[in-house]
Amino acid sequence: MSNDPKDWFEPIPDDFEPPYIPWPESRDRLFTRTGTGHDAPLTDDQKERLHHLVNGYKMSGDILVEYVEQNPGFKRRLVYPILFSYRHYLELALKRLVIDYGTAAGVMLEKKDHGLIRLWELFLKILIHHGHYGESSSNDAPTNLVGDRIKEFNSLDPVSQTFRYPSDRLNAPFSSVPSSIDLSEHKRVIENISVYLEAAHSALEPWYG
Known about the structure:
Blueprint: H1 46-70, H2 75-105, H3 116-129, H4 141-156, H5 183-204
Helix pairs in contact: 1-2, 2-3, 2-5
């Protein structure tokens, strides 16, 4: 064998193309319209936008859970965006119910109201106003069950920070978070809550049709 290092490797073919390595380019723009099938429509219509936000955050959580079920090595990396997506879904779903049906019940959103407990209380006032909860209701059990899960989530993430940041506003760790969580079970419970909230939407809609 030759002692010349140049002879130790096969010659590079003339038509060799090096692998693509992403790197900043002068043509880069984050928000572009290409007129291709990759364009995603945006809207400034608040009602339509809220509809897509509610469904989109839940779908994001669902897709990520399904991904880690097939690729369990990514659970540690994706658990935080999964839980944030579901938490934000719950917040927006309750806000949509208050926005759509709160006026007749005399309730409205407070500015920068991220607390799930407060949103749930506003939602209950709407149900009570229309006879779907309390003395006029024949079955409060499903509502109470969902309320318990809302309180459970709020106890871990009261202001929508626990699963978005490494520490709180005072740079303290989130000590109340459990050491692990079954993401598939979390997804199942969120689905149950989602069906309930959609049923509530359908029950209230005729009053405002």
